Structure formats: C-alpha cells, structure tokens
Amino acid sequence: MNPFRLAWTYFRIGMMNELQYRVNFFIQLLQSAIALTTGLIGLSLVFSQVNNLAGWSRAELLAVMGVHLLMGGVIRSAIQPNMERLMDDVLNGTLDFALTKPADAQALVSIREFRFWQLTDVLVGLVVIGVAVAQLQARMNLLQVVAFILALILGAVMLYCVWLMVTSIAFWVIRVSEIVNLFEGLYAAGRWPVGVYPDWLRTGLTFLVPVAFAVTVPAEAMTNRLTPETLLFAFGLTVMFVLLARGVWLIGLRSYSGASA
Amino acid sequence: MKRYIDFYLSSMKISILQQFQYRVANYFYMIGMIAEPVIYLVVWSTIANQQGGTAGGYTPGEFAAYYIVWTLVRNMNIVFTPYGWEWRIRQGNLSMELMRPMHPIHNDIAYFSGWKFVVIILWLPLALFLSWVFKPTFDITWAEGIAFFIAIWGAYLIRTMLLSLLGMITFWTTRVSAIFELYFGLELILSGRLVPMTLMPQWVQSLSNYLPFKWTFYFPIETLVGRMSAQELVTGIGMQILWIVIGASILNLVWRAAIKQFSAVGG
C-alpha cells in the first residue's frame, strides 16, 4: 500500500466533504481576517515605540507573522485534526478500525482527516509574506526561495512529530485533550522571533516544541539571516524527531488495549 | 433569598470537589494560558530596555507586575463560554436547565465561582515561579489590596454577563463562531489584555472609557500595579457595579425574548 496514494485519497475525500459547506469558507476568511487585524495592531503598537525589535525591522517581523499564520494553517488543516481524532480513538477504543487496516498504522492515523477551509490561513499567510517581501525591497534569489521552502517543510515535519509524541501519551494516561490548549499557547510564542525570549524559554521553544524551526528559521531564510549550518542542523534535528516519534508511537501502541469497539 | 444562598453554596462546593479531581488537566490548561502574557511581557520588556528603561510609563519590572497580575485576572475572567452556550442551545441541553425553578445563569455563576478557589490555589506556585523569573516590582497598599479583591470579582461578573449575552445570540442563528472571534478581538485590544491601556493611542483610550471591556482587565490589574488614589479605586468599583447592573438588565430583556425562540427535541 503506497502511503502517498493513500494520503491523496484521504485528502480528496476530506476536500469533497468540506466543499459541500461553501459558506464556511467565508466564515473562515472572516476569522483569518480578524486574527490578521489583531496581529497587525500588535505590530503597530510595538513600532509606535521603537523602530526595531531585537534587531528585526517592521517588514521583517511582518514576514515572521506571515510564516506563523501559514504554519498555523498547516497545523489546523492537516496535523491537529488527525491528532485529535487519534486522542478520541484511544479514549473510545475505536483505534481498532485503523489498526486492522492493511497499511502502516502511524501513516494511517496521520492522514485520515483534512480540514480544507483551514487552508485559508495558509493563503492569508502567503499574502502577508508577499507584502513583507515587497516591503523588504530585497530580491529573493532562487537559492533563498529553495532554502525557505525547505525550512518550512522541515519545520512542519518537526511539529508533526511533537504532536504525535504528545498525543501518544494518551496510550498511557487516556485523557490528554487539555494538551491541545498547552500546545496552542506555546505555538503562539512563534509570533515573535525566538531571539527575543530569555535563554531558558528559547531552549524550550527550540528543542521541546520546535517553534523556532517552524517559524523563525523559515523567516530567517527570507531575511538573509539563515546560515547553511542552521539549515543543516534543522535537517539533522528533523531526522532525530522523526525517529524519536516513531519510537514513542511504537512503544505507546503496545499499551493500547481496545475494549469492545 | 435563603434558597439562593443555599443553592450558591452547594453549587460552589460541588464544583470545588469536581475540579480538584481534574487538577492535572486544570494545570495543563493554566500553563497553556500563561504562554500568552509571558509573550507580551517579553516583547514589552525588550522594548522598554531598548528605549532606555520605560515604555508607556512602565519599567520592565512594572510590566512583569502587570502581566503576572494579568494571569490571576485572566483566570478570574474564565466564565461559562459563548461556545458553551452555543452547545447548550444547539444540542437542546438547555431544556433540562429550564426545568429548574431559577434562571440558569445562577448555576453558571455559582459553579464557576466555586472553581475559582481551585484555580487560585493552583495559580499560586505558578505566580511564584513567574515572579522568581521576571522580578516584578510591587508597591501595594492595604487599600489597593482590598480594592483588588473586590475588583476581580466585579470583573468576573461583568464578563459573565457579556459572554452570556454573546452566547445567547445562538438562540437566533447557529453560525456564531465568527461573531465570537470578532468579540474576542475587540476585547483583546480594548480591555488592556494585550497591552496596558497607556500604550494605546489616545482615541482608543477615550473609546475604552465608554465600553465595559477595560473594567474586566485593565482596571483590576491596575488596582494592584498602578498608583491609584482612593477616589479612583472607588470610582472604578462603582463603574464595575454600573456595568454589572447594565449587563444583568440587558440579559434579562434578551432572555425573555430568547426563550420564546427556543425549541428543543430531547436534551
């Protein structure tokens, strides 16, 4: 069973489901607009006082905000819905249905849900990034664009791994839905470059919840701050996260006992 | 009157016992919530330092005090959410509560105010940790302490009225999430939740004087953090009482119209 074809099929099903409710697109657009407006107000408050924040100019912080919105859209459309369903399945014992299918269980639980309209945030994020690039008046060369996209993908994979590991805790403690709130709170920290935070918090945001790699590093790629070493390090860390998440998932699965699903 | 007092005391006792069982879940929730003020605090202390010591009249230590008190005020401000109202109306669960011989709002107020006692106990170690890390500067007089104690409960009641009114929109339409988000956006800007009001442009500050939001965040925090005269403290609490009365009156009117709209199957 080719996991990519499977993912594509689930993606299409999810999309067709959501396309039935078109008004939801406008509601989602309105919500994205509200989030964007409050973000912009926060930014203008900061820049009514100073002309740079820890060395980041207004346009550069706009780029950070764009990446944060975009990645938030990726999380809410593809990662979080799957993980929430996994939490429910562990709680209710309905994970049996996924485990008995002839595909890798980890792949399957990671692709079953897709919230198409949440991609609105990705779209809004891209527009913000576009405006930021225009304001920076710096032409991004091809290498920078590639580095940016690569950093985004690595960041998304790391976030997925952390979500999967945290959700796997459900195999032992059953009730973990509050963790969603904890994760949202920590992800909100990515609104600003991690450089502004005190050391202990920056370490946490880098290695425990890799918001630094998901948001700040791609933004660094856009603003000429990214060194090849950082990107290489991000790659190594991603490989480590993937292996670790796989391990936690496999060990957790052993503790799963489906009760009369 | 006596039956109301009895009802309140029993509901509060039940919620304290219930919520204390979920202390780990409560803690996760609280830690997730504390990320928000820590982010604001870090950004604004950075700005204050960059500007040579203050921003909007606040030193980094005063920002720390502001946002640490913020965490308690935010916890006091957790009330039955509009999303809860949406669920309760859409699923028909309201039917059961209508059977009771008193307005359902009493149950919400009593239950959540009992929960506050658990929340405050859980909050104390976090406040100590945040104070140890961010070194707030406090200068609290007795009058300020007493005013703060009253103001956080005033804020709790104002926000209960506002969010219940917001949730009751669900009686007329079920597409409410965008309206809720809009409200929370306005509240964020106009209440002092995002930044102390002195950092806002003058016209926003004047606007906020005519709205209820700032009495739920900025005022209770400032009773403890700012240097308010006795008269300002009393006036502020008076404004809170005014908004509670206004909120309760509108709630009553809307409720009468709303309940005629309500139809539920089962529940």
Describe this structure in words.
The complex is a heterodimer of chains A (261) and B (267). Chain A has 261 residues and is mainly alpha-helical. Helix content of chain A is 75%, strand content 0%. Chain A has helices spanning 3-19, 23-47, 58-92, 96-99, 105-111, 119-136, 142-168, 170-173, 178-188, 199-208, 211-222, 228-254. In chain A, α3 packs antiparallel against α6. The mean pLDDT of chain A is 88. Chain B is mostly helical and 267 residues long. Chain B has one domain (2-261). Helices cover 74% and strands 0% of the residues of chain B. In chain B, α6 (104-134) crosses α7 (142-167). Chain B is globular and about 60 Å long. Chains A and B meet through α2 and α9 of A and α2 and α8 of B.
Structure at a glance:
The complex is a heterodimer of chains A (261) and B (267). With 261 residues, chain A is mostly helical.
Number of E-state strands of chain B:
0
Secondary-structure-based class of chain B equals: mainly alpha
Distance between the terminal alpha carbons of chain B, to the nearest Å?
30 Å
Poorly predicted regions of chain B: none
Classification by helices and strands of chain A: mainly alpha
Q: In percent terms, what proportion of residues of chain B is strand?
A: under 5%
Which tags fit this structure?
heterodimer; A: 261 residues; mainly alpha; 12 helices; 75% helix; B: 267 residues; 0% strand
Layout of strands and helices, then pairs:
The complex is a heterodimer of chains A (261) and B (267).
Chain A: H1 3-19, H2 23-47, H3 58-92, H4 96-99, H5 105-111, H6 119-136, H7 142-168, H8 170-173, H9 178-188, H10 199-208, H11 211-222, H12 228-254
Helix pairs in contact in A: 2-3, 3-6, 3-7, 3-11, 7-11, 7-12
Chain B: H1 2-21, H2 23-50, H3 60-76, H4 82-90, H5 94-98, H6 104-134, H7 142-167, H8 177-190, H9 202-209, H10 218-225, H11 230-261
